[in-house]
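Schema walk-through. Below, the input block comes first and the output block second. Nothing else is stored per chain. Lengths vary across the set, and this one has 91 residues.
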Amino acid sequence: MAAALVQQGVEKHLKAWLLARGWRLVKVHDLQRLLDDAVSYEPALEDYYGLCEGLTAFYFVDRYPFVAEPPTAKVVRKALEDSLEFVDRLR
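--- output ---
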């Protein structure tokens, strides 16, 4: 559950950041796709594609648990730390 909440928090923050820049809301949970749009506003954000890929995987594990094993607490903790850095960068 913690992994899904980290993903969801970043997704909502990234969408809010995009909306503040005039982006038209798209119903999508793929953070890499959202980051593509964010990079069009702020190219330096491309450094976060790896993070967004991992967080998107968290979403799918939460929704479709039979597809893959859930991440370990250590992996989720690291993703949270990296996510906080990313969110801070969006300010």
